[in-house]
Amino acid sequence: QVQLVESGGGLVQGGGSLRLSCAASGSTSSCNVIGWYRQAPGKQRELVASIGNRGNTNYADPVKGRFTISRDNAKNTVYLQMNSLKPEDTAVYYCNLRSGCIYVSEYWGQGTQVTVSS
Question: Which of 9, 54, 79, 109 has a CA positioned 20 to 30 A from the CA of residue 98?
Answer without folding.
Answer: 9
